[in-house]
Specification:
The complex is a heterodimer of chains A (285) and B (412). Chain A is mainly alpha-helical. Chain A has one domain. Helices cover 86% and strands 0% of the residues of chain A. In chain A, helix 1 packs parallel to helix 6. Chain B has 4 helices and 39 strands. A 14-stranded parallel beta sheet of chain B has the order 1-2-5-8-11-14-17-20-23-26-29-32-35-38, sandwiched between helices. Chain B has a 13-stranded parallel beta sheet with strand order 3-6-9-12-15-18-21-24-27-30-33-36-39, with no helix packed on it. A 12-stranded parallel beta sheet of chain B has the order 4-7-10-13-16-19-22-25-28-31-34-37. Chain B has one domain: Pectate Lyase C-like (3 Solenoid), CATH 2.160.20. The chains are: A mainly alpha (285), B mainly beta (412). Chains A and B meet through helix 5, helix 9, helix 10, helix 11 and helix 12 of A and helix 4 of B.
Amino acid sequence: MKTLVRDITPAIHFAKMQHTTHASAVAGNPIFRIIKYVLYDILQNRIVIGYTLFLLAVSMGLFALSDDPTKGLISLLNIVLIVAPLVSAIFATIHFYNASEFIELLAAQPIRRGVIVWSQFLGLVIALEIAVLAGIGIPVALYTPTATGLTLLLAAMGLTLVFVALALLASVVTRDKAKGIGVALLLWFYFALLYDALVLFILFTFADYPLEKATLVLAALNPIDLARVMVLLQMDISALMGYTGALFREWLGSSWGILTAVGILFLWAAVPMLLAVRVFRRKDL
Amino acid sequence: MKHLLIGIFLILAGVSPLIAAVIEVGVGLPCPDIRTALDRARSGDTILVHPGIYAEGNLAINKPLTLLGIGYPVLDGRHLDEVLTVNSPYVTVRGFDIRNSGQMSTMDLAGVKVLSADSVLIEGNRFQDCNFAIYLSNTIGCRVSKNVVQGIIKEEQNSGNGIHLWKCSGAVIEENYLTGHRDGIYFEFVTDSEIKGNTSEKNLRYGLHFMFSHNDRYHHNTFRNNGAGVAVMYSRQVTMTENYFGYNWGSSAYGILLKDISDSHIWKNNFEYNSAGVYMEGASRIILEENQFRENGWALRVQASCDANVIRGNNFFGNSFDVSTNGSLVLNTFNGNYWDKYEGYDLDRDGIGDVPFRPVSLYAVVVERMPHALMLMRSFMVYLMDKAEKIIPSLTPEHLMDEKPVMRPLAI
């Protein structure tokens, strides 16, 4: 019962807001107002606060434990690549299902469907990015304010963006909450663990073939790998430059490497999100 | 200055008719060009060259003379000739700006070439766009110091070396700055020589290249950002101490490449940001101690063809891979190094870890066999693989381990 009350809070806020403001102003640009209420709702959520504190504790602990900040960064990279996508995906899915009443209420108003999904997405993204900024950004700024640290933070933020988008796509497509969470979990499991095992298997199987371009394509097909490569470009550039492929070296050695990685990571967020909007527009609520 | 020198000369000339004369060369002086001065000079004379541009073709020095430039007079080879050829012992060349030597495919043309002449001193000159800048051939006891050598990067086959020594002994190469050549410093059949305090960077191939050169020492040099780092090949008894090797990036770029070298000592060097810090192939009885390996792709690549090498008391920090090897045979000793990846414990508090450290990870073995797997570096899957291998070693060389890893970084 309690959850139900919590879930409709934004709806109540929203109803009040509509009551007190001119309808024309709301119809003019309702997305920011909706985002505002979605965001308030999420930021008060205990899970988001817990997630922020968890990231903060883990990062601070890792930096404090290892005398070399580079070592701390390496451990933190593992956490970022596993935890950030997992929490983003699960939290976004659960939130979307919990907000279904609010979404139905909004859908009954003269508001476009696209605006509803986008406001949910942006509210989630902003809240989780704040968590990442506070939980990882502060320790990184304190202990290793270097290019590598900054790239790691960027990678964490990029992954949050991508996995919120993927999770929203999963929840828009499936009607059942348990199934939606299951799909989000599977996506995480695939990208975080299975994919690299598959890549290694492919590399072993086709070891006798020129695989230089194929490896680059394979890295681009997984957002977690992309984020990892972004950090590697800072952290292990000496080793990456020892790689035999000329194309690889040319691409990675210039600033194009990191630019393309960021660009493709954005595509990984944009494409699922646009798909989600498309599906939601036609969805029978 | 000029009058003072003339004054000194006159006084000395009065004292002894045997003392060396000073011949001045410059525009408006009795001797307008260097060639005439070289003809007039007797053994032991000093030729003083005033500022100006002297493009006189090839100048050969056939007597023991001192050639001094005031305010860096320019000796221009017009991309046609060798600029200076020294055929006599006890020659000093100091304070010139030597430019634009010729280039030929049949002869190695140089800025200054010393041919079978001993005890020659080449000091404080500038070299620009020479094929070879300084070329010593068949000499004993020559000294090359404080020269600034700047080549223009060309393709490897058309470029010469900054300082090139062939069949020399007792040479001293010190405090030179070398850039833009094929090899910064090249030694072939050079013995009992010393290379110290030089900086060699952004050369096409090696910062320093040893071939068949025994009993040499190089120390306090900086080798940075060269195409392939430093190579020491087919040599023995080479001492390499307190040098800096950094930023040598590439699939065949190394801090030091040791190939078929034996009985050498590598001590207190700094290896930073190289694709491979030290690459050893066919190396025997080399002692590698108290070196600093920081943020290299591979700190050490020890091929299975190496034997009886001792790697002790080094610090390894933040390298992507600490050690890799291409076989399972291990004939080298690792002892008492500091490894930042060591996760063991020290119950008896003697500063030495109680469990041995295996510096070759499973992933390093995988990458050695399959370089494409480099893309998976630091993936969680790789992390799991390495952990599993640490518990039950199966693919990594069983005997390659540091029995006494130290717990804290060594003060070096």
